[in-house]
Write a structure and sequence with these properties.
Length: 212
Amino acid sequence: MKAIFLIIAVITACFGCNSKNDSPAVKKESSAGKNGLASPDIQIKTALLAAPQEKKDNCTVLGYSPDKQLIVLKQGTNEMICLADNPDEPGFSVACYVKDLEPFMKRGRELRKQGISGQQLNDEREKEVNAGTLQMPKRPAALYVYSADEKDFEPATGEVKNGYLRYVIYIPYATAASTGLPEKPSAPGMPWIMDAGKSRAHIMINPEKTAK
């Protein structure tokens, strides 16, 4: 229990100091896909926007080949995997997550290729985790998501304006009772637990957006 709240405190503090993808509760704001594919260097640069500052240099980065297949663009040495923006999806969204989450994330990508999405996708992964054929982390596992409106992303240069960073901590089968967290936030930026009691249970931390 102490470890869980320590993770929350550290992540929240980092945001205060520094004030797909398959991330939960992320809504892209534009309705059309982007034209063209950013270069590998730009994909790496922008994918790392989601990574904690002290981990950026050593992350593995997954991105897209010219035929839009997901490949390793940069092999890292630490525990983090970053995912570049998908050129076929609307808006801009990159993510970085601890490698223990990769089986769960990879399975989500596979199911989407099969045309499975939404609740059906969640149900399928839940069934596989419960059957022991899909592994979830045995410890709390962090996911960071950096997103922006499509109009605020320039693929040619990698410039992103008005980006927003949010945090997720997966704790399989955690509940409001086991964590002391509510199942919905009652104040801006308040941590809360989503999908409580499920294998995909996770703590959501959505920092309050600052006025522009």
